[in-house]
Amino acid sequence: MLRQLDVLARHGDVTTLSYGERPDAAHDHLQIDSALPSLPQTVSGVLKLALRRYRSVALDAPAVRAAREALGAREFDIVVANEARALPLARAVAGSPRIWCDLHEWAPAERSHVLSWRLLVAPFMDWVCRTYLPGVDAATTVNQSIATMYEEHFGARTEVVRNAMAYCPDLAPSPLASDRIRLVHSGGAVAGRNIEAIIEAVDLLGDRYSLDLYLIQPRQADGYWRKLADRIAASAQTTLHPAVRPADLPQTLNAYDLGVFVLPPHTPNHRLMLPNKFFDFVQARLGIVFGPAVETDRLIRDHRLGVITEGYTAADLVRAIQGISREDVARFKQSAHDVAELLSSEADIAVQDAILTRLVHA
């Protein structure tokens, strides 16, 4: 999103409407109280979801109500809806703006591994997509597999904007340490991300390996964060670091050898993932150890960037890493260096620039 804002700012004055403080690229900012949910989680909202009264609940979430009040009668030329759930609000913006929906992933199955979400919210998200997507002026998602799903299910022509980082020309593969292989993982500390399996794996691998974690503390779920922090503290080979700014990740991660991520496919988004950490690891010139997933499997194999585990358990991760020699690690890091420019955000920025040019002159 921050990279997208940089692109938007080159085409005009940007007003952001979101949780949190004003991003650097924004000309103006309307801040929403982070305690307000973006889904209709009130008693009346849940009842409307259960009764499939979607049109009456589309603008009913507490955060959406606050957003409409903050917007007032302001008019805009282009509205970028961040994820499908923002589409009803985008349509409610005053005037007749062009709408670009940045879908990110497959909206109808965002949290389908959670029973309440699957029963109440998934049908609502399907309705939102069927109702609003055919009328948007532009739509984007993170990879071609998901773009094809949007076109097949909702008839929405969807372009691909990956979660790739800017090319880091000044970085090169760091030399290997003499005494150990240095594993690293970065991202949100979210239940279900299987971070515990990575910690367990490094414990099983022994003192010839280390694991460093750069984790974003969740806005909620303090109980999970405390439990995870305790698990990290109990691991002699694992070190927890504060999160770093996205732009600083390649430089920070460059000191390590293998970027690790094993996400079980609880949802279609997991099965078809192409996460920003993949591109972060490439720019950092790391070898990659990922769990099986359609899009990342293809890139890892095509560019010889690392290995794919057989499954998603700590044991699967241990077997994969034990099969990697020091020479393999050096080759993987060099392969990342060789394709860092190819897998950077240049192509994605070009897609976004073309969309904005088309919308500005429409």
Mean pLDDT: 94
Distance N to C terminus: 24 Å
Cα shape: globular
Order of helices and strands: HEEHHHEHEHEHEEHEHEHEHHEHEHHH
Number of helices: 16
Main β-sheet description? 6 strands, parallel
Rg over CA atoms, rounded to whole Å, is: 21 Å
DSSP helix fraction: 40-55%
The counted number of beta strands is 12
- Binned strand content: 15-25%
Residue windows where pLDDT falls under 50 for at least 5 positions = none
Strand order of the largest sheet: 9-8-7-10-11-12
Q: Looking at the chains present, what oligomeric state does this protein adopt? A: single chain
**Structural class of the helices, strands and pairings?**
alpha/beta
Spell out the key features of this protein.
362 residues, alpha/beta, six-stranded parallel sheet, four-stranded parallel sheet, 16 helices
